[in-house]
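Model it.
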Amino acid sequence: MTENTSRLKVGTVRSGHGDLRGANAPHSPQFEGSFGRMFRALPAAIFDDEELKNLAEPGKGMLSAPEIVKDKDGNPVRDSRGFLIPSATPEEEVDDEENFGIPAGYTYLGQFIDHDITFDPASSLQGQNDPDALVDFRTPALDLDNIYGRGPDDQPYLFEADGRTFAFGKSLTFGDKPSKAMDLQRTIGTKRALIGDKRNDENVIVSQLQGVFLKFHNAIAKLLSSKTFEEVQREVRWHYQWVILHDFLPRIVGPKMVHEILPHLDDPKGIHKVKPELHFFKPKNRPFIPVEFSVAAYRFGHSMVRPIYRLNTELGSGASQDEIKRGVAGRQFIFAAVQKDGLNGFNEFPTQWAIDWNLFFERTRKLDDPKNRGKSRVQPSYKIDSSLVNPLAFLPEFSKLKGTGPDLEPDKDGHPAPQPKAISNLAHRNLLRGMSMGLPSGQAVAHFMGRDPIPDNELTVGKANVDGLKGNKSITTFGESFTKNAPLWFYVLAEAQHAWAQAAKKKQGKDDAKNMIHVHLGPVGGRIVAEVLIGLMLGDPNSFLSQRPEWKPTEFAENGKFEMPQLITAAGL
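Modeled.
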């Protein structure tokens, strides 16, 4: 990336893949487009280019250093190729970065929801940066058009010959044992998935979550065999919306925030007597996606990504003693240069990689159960904090292919090497994108919401764990342009971390008890996320909140509860 200016100026143009152009973010005269602004009166926050880069730097800023094998003196150990040797916290031990309030599956449910409501193929770092002029090729509604595409009449290849049920590819297995999971349909040559939104093949986990929803649709279609496709589709959508409202959002923003916005959930008088409380997301004409949501607040999930996952308990049976010792036996990194080592997407993956969803959602175990250890445990997400795991510094989409692929070209340390002039560091991309879109600072939004901003010395960069309490530095140590002027995305993450830190300082007992305090979004980030998702439902004339607000799932509920575990069971997985 060229660095010949210290700040982005109005009209600045930069060329080259991964660079910014059109960096000013003008406000169109119309109030809203498919994308728009939630806080239109607030000024854009401007930052120094180098300071944004410093804030995102791996090992020093928001990107963690890699977890690697070190010798007794703390120096990295390298293999015969000169590459770093990865390691991970063993599954029998508590990882102090884990969030015991949110299972790992919700990270990818969040990604799936994002792909349902937003898709702007031009809005990369190179794209036009007027939010009101962006085109959202997804409907701004929680209607599952990321799985339905344009429907069986226009995209019949997504469906079986009956035109009612989704088609699948090959069967998947748990290691060498059979499973009910199936891969998505894939093209013969490129092995790309044939689905309603290509992004739901970005990694192996979201790919198989797409399969869960396809199978859930098929289960509803079988149950409602006399109903039309449109009636089946409505039933699937309403179950999905229920899960977002009663499972996903309470975990991400806390039940209290959800009930503040929808007080009727606690009041028998109902939604028509006890009105929703949307204070900040108030579309004048039709629902839209605020850039403060899509470019900042809703990117909280990036901090929840784990560096390594176990897909099923049968993997790793032939692991070496070295792999077992390093904690990587039977587990895959979220991204890696070698395809078989990582959960990189947009390609066929090993048949043995069927996901056991008991390892991603609380179906048979609870996260905070002391017995939830070992390879059959429910994997927690990582905490929502101002730290991202090291593999996210090497996004495959912006990395070099090794020959014709699917493996990526490694750099000197064995990480995927970026394409020329590309920015493959996710934190850096998010920070640049936020400024290019003219987002206000986190402090400005907090003031607008009537909240006291978090002081600079308490907006810290790093992990929400006991070690971080001692060693995390203030954002202002990364540059003067951050003084009372934090990027909104960073502020949302740091706000969640700040609440954890306040609770940890008050809690008595051992470090493990402090590290296991649950984390969810704070009052600024949580309010943005909850108001937009709930507002999209309220603004959709076809949602259950609009058509039948008293509706509840009954067929697949367990003891009156219908959440992701019940949806997965209903899908037959």
